[in-house]
Design brief:
This protein is of the alpha+beta class. The chain has helices at 22-28, 108-114, 122-125, 128-140, 159-172, and strands at residues 12-14, 46-50, 59-63, 75-79, 88-94, 148-155. It has 5 helices and 6 strands; from the N terminus they run βαββββαααβα.
Length: 203
């Protein structure tokens, strides 16, 4: 992949077991398309944060409408306006609930970082400083580490990355047409037998 980040209008898709029905989404209280301004609520359960400015990015959340079962249903987080090019964002999911209103437990893998659980696996430990940076920025934005179900960050593609290939193609001009072969085509003889002309029979 030659891209330097995600699309500026990219939706965020994540599977959260238990948050997979309209009832669970209602219990969670994430901002929807009918009330998108709730993304800015102090206790909003779905937050997308600009990692540089600390400002929230306006988003709304829905269930994947193409899923046919609860087990295959993900939540889709849509930006109300495009993400800024070359920017880094942090996604924070917190206090998510199931259809009964029970707060969902964070995934075991994420708890290594959130709860600083010990591990002897290098692939886990080498990511600890990165997650500490995420938690620090969320804390500055008023989001408690202990409330998190899951959090991660991503980078948005630059304008140069999105337009470079198109600009290069334009600078090269239109693609030249294939020239005709200098050798003329030879017509092959027909394989159909010739019909014999009928004539009068002499007496």
């Amino acid at each position: 992949n030659s891209s330097d980040g995600f699309s500026q209008g990219q939706s965020i898709i994540v599977k959260v077991p238990g948050l997979d029905t309209p009832e669970a989404l209602a219990q969670t209280g994430a901002s929807g398309l009918s009330d998108p301004s709730r993304y800015a609520d102090a206790e909003a359960p779905v937050v997308v944060l600009d990692a540089t400015t600390g400002e929230r990015h306006p988003v709304w959340t829905e269930l994947d409408s193409t899923a046919t079962t609860a087990a295959s249903t993900a939540i889709v987080i849509h930006p109300l306006v495009n993400f800024d090019p070359k920017a880094r964002y942090i996604v924070a999911l917190r206090n998510l609930k199931d259809a009964a209103g029970t707060v969902l437990k964070a995934p075991a893998g994420f708890r290594y970082y959130r709860d600083t659980l010990p591990s002897n696996k290098p692939q886990i430990n080498q990511r600890r400083l990165h997650f500490e940076n995420i938690f620090k920025k969320l804390r500055s934005a008023g989001i408690k580490r202990s409330s998190l179900y899951l959090s991660w960050d991503f980078t948005v593609a630059s304008d140069e990355n999105n337009s470079e290939r198109a600009l290069v193609r334009r600078s090269l001009g239109p693609t030249p047409r294939r020239s005709r072969s200098p050798h003329p085509r030879r017509r092959l003889p027909s394989a159909a037998p010739k019909r014999r002309r009928r004539g009068r029979t002499r007496p």
